[in-house]
Design brief:
This protein is α/β, with parallel strands linked by helices and 309 residues long. It is 35% helix and 22% strand. A 9-stranded mixed beta sheet has the order 7-1-2-8-9-10-11-12-13. It has a two-stranded antiparallel sheet with strand order 3-6. Strands 4-5 form a two-stranded antiparallel ribbon. α6 links the parallel β9 and β10. α3 crosses α5 and α5 packs parallel to α6. The longest helix has 15 residues. The protein is globular, with a radius of gyration of 21 Å. It starts with 6 loop residues before the first strand and ends with a strand.
């Protein structure tokens, strides 16, 4: 089954998940996403290239990493280790040398067979719970050949249910190739206005909305759940709420919406990757329960079925 196109970069495999599809699931996270959401909880998976993470809170300031770095990309100063990412070649010597596990490279090449072996380790839990494999990212549809082979393998070799978490920003052909082997689509819907989508997410919204419509109307046998991350100041304004509701009502079948409140669980990752965390700089706060309930009721008043809020 193995071929060159069936190897891509995986930045995490998470076992025993119960929030990303039915039953107990294993999530395979593929590297790279066309969107640049400022609040992304998995910034280590946004780049299509591998990335080095350095957790300064674990650092013992021993200096061993600076001694082994062949590119002199690591510098020990009074306030800790500084990483010159322009010089770093991701050789991994700092990872192997650090006794405190400060360093990690995200985005390791993995074949379809290797990923399926990891997924298959918990096969008994899937059958007892109705679970299976979920492919996430990054954006899984950015790797159509690998994704299709992985989903097909989960069906044919493991006989488990499959799901993908997707922003739907991909060519329609990529979606259709994978759809044959997908049981459940978990699709983000963030911003409907194309200009605002481009400004905030880095891409226009037309292809995203088109692909959601394709799933809803041309694959009625597939389970489809839309998920809206509620990010105060970015997409929780009345115009966007009404736009999302109008789009959902325009679909030819009832599609439920799940509201996901903003959180800062991924904030520390940005510092470890040398990235700015804009929502933190802008003082974005997590919406409280009252705000989430009010948004859910607004959607219901607009004719949308809201679940799990």
């Amino acid at each position: 089954m193995s071929s060159r196109h069936e190897e891509t970069k995986v930045f995490n495999i998470q076992r025993y998940s119960v929030h990303d599809g039915p039953g107990i699931r294993t999530i395979v996270f593929l590297q790279g996403c066309p969107l640049q959401c400022p609040w992304c909880a998995n910034p280590e998976g946004r780049s299509f290239a591998s990335v080095l993470s350095h957790n300064r809170s674990l650092c013992r300031l021993c200096g061993r990493c600076t001694a082994v770095c062949p590119e002199q990309a690591l510098r020990l100063e009074e306030d800790g280790i500084h990483v010159d990412r322009a010089r770093c070649t991701l050789c991994g010597k700092c990872v192997w040398t650090c006794a405190a596990d400060c360093y990690k490279i995200f985005g390791e090449p993995m074949t379809v067979e290797e990923a399926l072996r990891e997924v298959g380790k918990d096969e008994s839990f899937y059958f007892r719970s109705g679970g299976g494999m979920t492919v996430s990212g990054g954006e899984p549809l950015a790797h159509p050949e690998y994704l299709t082979a992985l989903l097909r393998g989960a069906k044919e070799q493991l006989d488990v249910s499959t799901a993908i978490e997707t922003c739907c920003c991909a060519p329609e052909e990529s979606l259709r190739r994978a759809a044959e082997y997908v049981d459940t689509f978990l699709c983000d819907i963030k911003i409907v206005d194309s200009r605002r989508s481009r400004e905030i997410l880095g891409v226009p919204s037309e292809q995203i909305l088109h692909n959601i419509r394709v799933i809803a109307e041309e694959y009625p046998e597939k389970t489809l759940l839309l998920r809206m991350p509620v990010i105060p100041g970015y997409n929780d304004d009345p115009e966007n709420i009404q736009g999302i509701a109008a789009f959902i009502r325009s679909l030819k079948r009832e599609v439920p919406l799940e509201l996901l409140p903003y959180h800062e669980f991924g904030k520390a990752k940005y510092a470890n990757l040398g990235l700015r965390y804009l929502p933190g700089e802008q003082g974005v706060a997590a919406p409280d329960r009252e705000r989430m309930e009010a948004l859910a009721q607004t959607f219901r008043d607009l004719g949308v079925t809201v679940v799990h809020t």
